[in-house]
Specification:
Layout lengths: L1 H9 L3 H5 L13 H8 L1 H11 L4 H7 L1 H13 L3 H10 L2 H4 L7 H7 L1
Length: 110
Protein backbone atom coordinates (compact mmCIF):
# COMPACT_ATOMS: atom_id res chain seq x y z
CA UNK A 1 0.00 0.00 0.00
CA UNK A 2 2.71 2.63 0.74
CA UNK A 3 4.28 2.09 -2.69
CA UNK A 4 0.89 2.60 -4.37
CA UNK A 5 0.31 5.78 -2.34
CA UNK A 6 3.75 7.13 -3.35
CA UNK A 7 3.08 6.39 -7.01
CA UNK A 8 -0.39 7.96 -6.98
CA UNK A 9 0.88 11.03 -5.11
CA UNK A 10 3.72 11.49 -7.57
CA UNK A 11 1.18 11.75 -10.40
CA UNK A 12 -0.77 14.60 -8.76
CA UNK A 13 -0.37 18.29 -9.57
CA UNK A 14 0.96 20.63 -6.89
CA UNK A 15 -2.52 22.08 -6.44
CA UNK A 16 -4.02 18.65 -5.91
CA UNK A 17 -1.31 17.73 -3.39
CA UNK A 18 -2.38 20.52 -1.05
CA UNK A 19 -6.12 20.49 -1.78
CA UNK A 20 -8.69 19.49 0.78
CA UNK A 21 -10.29 17.07 1.07
CA UNK A 22 -7.43 14.72 0.30
CA UNK A 23 -7.87 12.82 -2.93
CA UNK A 24 -6.68 9.26 -3.31
CA UNK A 25 -6.69 9.09 -7.11
CA UNK A 26 -5.20 11.89 -9.23
CA UNK A 27 -7.97 13.76 -11.04
CA UNK A 28 -5.66 14.72 -13.89
CA UNK A 29 -2.54 12.50 -13.74
CA UNK A 30 0.65 14.28 -14.77
CA UNK A 31 4.32 13.44 -15.19
CA UNK A 32 5.29 17.04 -14.41
CA UNK A 33 6.77 16.08 -11.02
CA UNK A 34 9.10 13.59 -12.68
CA UNK A 35 10.09 16.07 -15.36
CA UNK A 36 10.73 18.71 -12.72
CA UNK A 37 12.80 16.32 -10.60
CA UNK A 38 15.03 15.10 -13.41
CA UNK A 39 15.07 17.69 -16.18
CA UNK A 40 17.30 20.33 -14.59
CA UNK A 41 19.84 18.15 -12.86
CA UNK A 42 22.19 17.39 -15.75
CA UNK A 43 22.02 21.04 -16.74
CA UNK A 44 22.98 22.20 -13.25
CA UNK A 45 25.92 19.81 -13.13
CA UNK A 46 27.14 20.76 -16.59
CA UNK A 47 26.77 24.45 -15.80
CA UNK A 48 28.68 24.02 -12.53
CA UNK A 49 31.47 22.13 -14.28
CA UNK A 50 31.74 24.80 -16.97
CA UNK A 51 31.71 27.54 -14.32
CA UNK A 52 34.68 25.84 -12.69
CA UNK A 53 36.41 25.53 -16.09
CA UNK A 54 36.01 21.76 -16.16
CA UNK A 55 35.00 20.20 -19.49
CA UNK A 56 32.00 17.90 -18.78
CA UNK A 57 32.61 15.84 -21.93
CA UNK A 58 36.27 15.32 -21.07
CA UNK A 59 35.37 14.11 -17.57
CA UNK A 60 32.68 11.80 -18.95
CA UNK A 61 35.17 10.27 -21.39
CA UNK A 62 38.21 10.05 -19.10
CA UNK A 63 36.44 9.18 -15.84
CA UNK A 64 32.96 7.79 -16.64
CA UNK A 65 32.39 6.40 -13.15
CA UNK A 66 33.37 9.71 -11.54
CA UNK A 67 31.03 11.56 -13.91
CA UNK A 68 28.19 9.14 -13.14
CA UNK A 69 28.78 9.65 -9.41
CA UNK A 70 28.69 13.42 -9.89
CA UNK A 71 25.33 13.02 -11.64
CA UNK A 72 23.97 10.75 -8.92
CA UNK A 73 25.00 13.07 -6.10
CA UNK A 74 23.67 16.11 -7.96
CA UNK A 75 20.32 14.41 -8.57
CA UNK A 76 19.89 13.72 -4.84
CA UNK A 77 21.12 17.13 -3.68
CA UNK A 78 18.93 19.26 -1.42
CA UNK A 79 20.58 22.51 -2.57
CA UNK A 80 19.41 22.60 -6.20
CA UNK A 81 17.63 25.93 -5.79
CA UNK A 82 20.66 27.60 -4.22
CA UNK A 83 22.91 26.11 -6.89
CA UNK A 84 20.67 27.39 -9.67
CA UNK A 85 20.54 30.87 -8.09
CA UNK A 86 24.32 31.01 -7.66
CA UNK A 87 24.91 29.82 -11.23
CA UNK A 88 22.47 32.42 -12.55
CA UNK A 89 24.06 35.20 -10.49
CA UNK A 90 27.63 34.20 -11.34
CA UNK A 91 28.49 33.36 -7.71
CA UNK A 92 28.68 29.56 -7.95
CA UNK A 93 32.47 29.38 -8.32
CA UNK A 94 32.85 31.30 -5.05
CA UNK A 95 30.06 29.66 -3.03
CA UNK A 96 29.68 26.04 -4.18
CA UNK A 97 31.90 24.64 -1.40
CA UNK A 98 29.39 25.92 1.17
CA UNK A 99 26.53 23.69 -0.03
CA UNK A 100 27.51 21.38 -2.90
CA UNK A 101 27.87 17.71 -1.89
CA UNK A 102 30.11 17.27 -4.95
CA UNK A 103 32.51 20.01 -3.83
CA UNK A 104 35.43 17.73 -2.95
CA UNK A 105 35.24 15.91 -6.28
CA UNK A 106 34.84 19.19 -8.17
CA UNK A 107 37.87 20.68 -6.41
CA UNK A 108 39.89 17.58 -7.28
CA UNK A 109 38.90 17.83 -10.95
CA UNK A 110 39.69 21.54 -11.25
Amino acid sequence: FPAVWILLTSLKSEAELVSKPITYWPHDPTLANYLKAFADQPLLLERMLETLHIDPDAVARAEPMVYRDLQRVCAMCDSKNRCARDLEAGRAAFNFEDYCPNSLTLKTLS
